[in-house]
Each structure stands twice: as structure tokens, then as C-alpha cells.
Amino acid sequence: DVQLVESGGGKVETGGSLTISCSYSEYSSSYCLAWFRQAEGKEREGVALIEQDYTRVYADSVKGRFAISKDNNKYVLRLQMNNLKREDTAMYYCAATPFVCPTTVRDRAADFNYWGQGTQVTVS
């Protein structure tokens, strides 16, 4: 069974940092994993993904500021967010697919089969 549970969201000031986490099951440890976000009134957009071989892909809007990582011993996916901007305010979702990762992430929500419930990040 694939279960994704996000945690670590909260409020942070502009320019600050925050790390959010997603616990996943051992069953999905070989999956393509990703972070998406959805701001109020906007479509869900991909932020970053990490392939089965640990190759990372980022959306242009977060390159150089965000870092995705996974720990397949503890089954935790993380998104470290630095130099946060107000436009980063959104509900952040962890996502997984058993298939090969797409080569881009920003508009690839349809490629992912499993989703967490989300964790809110607010930048003021």
C-alpha cells in the first residue's frame, strides 16, 4: 500500500527557510517521488522530483533555493526551502508514481498516481 504523509509546514518570513517532510512506505521506496504545490486559486504545479537513481529535477522558479532529498532507510522525502518568497505560499503535496520519472516537473501532476494530504506553507 502506498501512503504518503506530509509534515513540517508552517509560517515563515520572507527570506527564511523551512524544511517539509513526507513519510512514505517501504513499498514505494523504489518509486519516483516529487513535491507539488497549489496556491489558492491556481493550478497544482510541480516543484521538484527525485528519480530512482537520486537524479533531481527542479522547476525554474525554485532552482537554487529548494533542495529535494530522500532517505530510503527511514522512508522520508524532504524539501528544504531557502530564501522563501511570498509567491512560495501554497499547500505542498508529496506525490509518487511507480513509473519512470518525467523529465520535467512543473506541469506533470497527471503523471503521479499517489498523493498525500498536503501541508501548508505560508510566507509573509
Description:
It is a single chain. The chain is mainly β and 124 residues long. It contains no helices and eleven strands. The strands form two sheets. Strands 2, 4, 5, 6, 9, 10 and 11 form a seven-stranded mixed sheet that branches. A hairpin with a 5-residue loop joins strand 5 (45-50) and strand 6 (56-58).
Q: What are its keywords?
A:
124 residues; single chain; seven-stranded mixed sheet; 0% helix
List the helices and strands and how they pair.
Layout (H helix, E strand, L loop, with lengths): L3 E4 L2 E3 L5 E7 L7 E7 L6 E6 L5 E3 L7 E6 L4 E6 L8 E8 L16 E2 L3 E5 L1
Parallel strand pairs: 2-11
Antiparallel strand pairs: 1-3, 3-8, 4-5, 4-9, 5-6, 7-8, 9-10, 9-11
Coarse structural class: mainly beta
Biggest sheet details: 7 strands, mixed
Number of strands: 11
SS summary, helix count: 0
Short characterization:
This protein is mainly beta and 124 residues long. 0% of the residues lie in helices and 46% in strands. Strands 2, 4, 5, 6, 9, 10 and 11 form a seven-stranded mixed sheet that branches.
